[in-house]
Amino acid sequence: MRADFYLIAKPRFLEEPLKLVCELARKAYDSNQWTLVLARDAAQAEELDELLWEFDPDAYIPHQIAGDEEDELTPVLIATPDIDVPARALVINLRDDAFTGACERVLEVVPADPSAREPLRERWKQYKARGFEVNKHDM
């Protein structure tokens, strides 16, 4: 099990951190990894859904917001907190708490805002305590 923390630093992600999520989802899709994105709320899920449509005009990333019978057929599934969906091998966690389900790898996007980083330091410790190999990537 692995937890990767992506620290936003590059200008292209500072203004729109969800573009980093799109980039991570595209890399996962390109490597045939079915992905669950845990959105913070319905508004964030909708915003991410729109960004995935517009993200790369040359590459379609099959995705949808969870909530219908087609969920299991979609490589990138976006889940809001009110929908219970099974975990996948790769989870991109955008919520305020550490992911507690079973997965092979969880990705955490760390905002550039220093005040938002402190809770993620705690999350780092939680993953380590659960036996995850923990890594940091500057983005």
UniProtKB/TrEMBL annotation:
Gene3D superfamilies: DNA polymerase III subunit chi
SUPFAM superfamilies xref list: DNA polymerase III chi subunit
InterPro entries reported in the protein's UniProt record: DNA_pol3_chi, PolIII_chi_sf
Pfam families xrefs: DNA_pol3_chi
Entry superkingdom: Bacteria
Protein name: DNA polymerase III subunit chi
Organism: Pseudoxanthomonas japonensis
